[in-house]
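Q: Can I see a sequence and its folded structure?
A: Here is a first one.
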Amino acid sequence: MDSSTNSSSSSYGSKATCRSIELYSKIVIGFIGTALNLASMAVYANPRMSHLLNNKAKINNILLFKSLSDLITLFRLVLVNLIRPDWSTNYAYFLFAHIYTYYISFISQLSSMLFDVAVSFDRYVIVANRFLFFTRINYRYLVAVIYIYSALFYIFKFFQFNYATQLTMNKTMPTTDKSPLIDAEFAYSTASRALGIIHSIQRDFLCVSLIIVLNVLLLVKIKRLLNKKRTLKSTTRSSVSTLSIGKRQSSTTTAATLSENQREDSAELNLTIMVILTGLTAIIGHTTSIMAYLSNEELYKIDCFNLVNYTLYFLSYTVTFFFYVAFNKRFREIFLDYCLTVQSMIRRVKIALHDKLMRS
């Protein structure tokens, strides 16, 4: 009897510890991710990124809206976990935090995955020189279709809870820390369950599968192109070295052209690597959700599985900033300019405050 009691108390303690760590990790990841996605949006909104004349402009604009979707997801994470309102005293905020932002976060999560698919497909189109019709589609139409589809699909989330008034809830439910939201009959309906299954399939299976396929195709194509360029490079160098001294100017021009082509190829390769890593991050972030779905949600009963699941999931919306910095030179330069501007502003404020104190 004592051993079973100790075992149950130990299990309860373990779950409580995992929940505490999970709560604080959500808040920390939410704050850091919100800041990093704000920085990404500021950089991608810069005309030097969004008004390029080549194929990179489309990807940059799509990544701007992906950063916006990731920002909304992570800001909601902070909003719900840091500010935990008592529904009986702040009913309006409770509904806003737990219902309306709940709906918006589903839109942002699905749209983020669809943006990942769009970026991967756009990169494959450029690298493979196929499906070129996609290059003629304006990114604004693509963004509008993704957001409208996501918003329309998740309307059913509004009908999964009963919307009683605060007075009705206070009469029927005691004041506790638990959520007073009651599942509506629609939540148990066949339509609601079918939509839930479609949600899991399209976000966790279909989008992830498309990203995997596109990334594999990108890797294969990039490998072939690199082999061809190595052969072309060695041939070009050989032809340059055999030019006569009398044609030194032509040799210099050819070498400069070769160097320019190499820089352009390097930029294209880095952009492709960035897209692949971004897609890989999305795949890893959804791996535990897929595993839980395949196990018929039995994995959620394991202590600390939610901790691992949510940490990987929300980190996938955070770390993409570092890929942008590492593999996009223009992004890195603009971000550094912003940092220097902020540093200069802070210095001027410090000097102004110091002068004010000295005068007083």
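Q: Show me another, different protein.
A: A second, unrelated one:
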Amino acid sequence: MWLTILKILIALLAISGICILCGQVLYTLMPVKKSTLVQKFIAGLLFEMAVYEVLYIFMVFRYVSLGKLTFCWMLVTAVTAAAGLWISVKKNIQRPYAVKKKFKKYLSDINIYTIVMLILICAYTIMTLLYQQEFQDDAFFAGIASTSYTTDTIIRYSPYTGGEITVLRYAKYVFSGYPVMIASLARVTLLRPIVVMHIVIPVLMIGAHYILCYMFAQMVFRSRHKSEIAMIILCIINMNSLYVINEMSTSAWMFVGAWYGKSILSNVCIISLWYYLIKTNDSSVSGYLGPKGWIIIFIADMAAVLSSTFACIAVLAVSFVITLFYFVKKRSWFNICGWAITIMPMMIIMLMTYLLRYKALF
């Protein structure tokens, strides 16, 4: 038991560190002069999900082994993280006193609101881990992950019968690599797929959700204290989402199944897409990304598809509404062009999904 707990803690720390380093590369490419560790973590997490999805799509129809897919993913991750480490070391060597001063300032800004916010988020995370429920899809996700993990395959054997199948059997879900990613993470972290699915992923996604909401609050209120108060209120509301469980709201999805694909889509991917669309299109906000922000929007789109094929509709709707708003406000066709280019993979995946489902019927 204690060895498993130690593995979980090491996995969480390692994944967080790698995401921060990958995010460092993305923020350097865009480029953004001022960025925090949490911003880099979110960007890196989306990057890792997007890379896995791209590799998965290219390999699933060729029935490549899980080991090869995991190796390619880890290779890209290692190269990107190494580049991020080199950039970070180079920057910190050039200005060590500035980094030290910034860290001291952050500690001095901690107040009662910060402490209450962190306590509530930790309490919410523990409650979520203890209260997770099993849905019908839980058996599907766990089955696909465990089967891929055991047989070293990607959607090759049925998790229910053990018989050999083709991708047409699960045409509705074949473009979502999330269940297979659970198996890859299990291979890398030396944990069982069910442990990764019900402990590692919920902790990461709950943390990402609250970080995104905090980033959003800072963008709206432009005050750290007001943002922290907003987060305290949000956390209390989320804690009471159990009472609207029958409505399956966004907060209810996260409370009863933070591992669930649609929960990750609604609580992490869509919020991040909304955040980066505003940062890319609105020059009046702090940390304006500009045209290069479409890079991370494309990454957020692909990360959303990894979590659920429903993302093809959700991403299309959310991004279209926000882009249309800024098109009317700024009268710039560049935003429409950026949206059209980044949304193209969504349209192709949606079309291919319907074609595969149609073919599976005959």
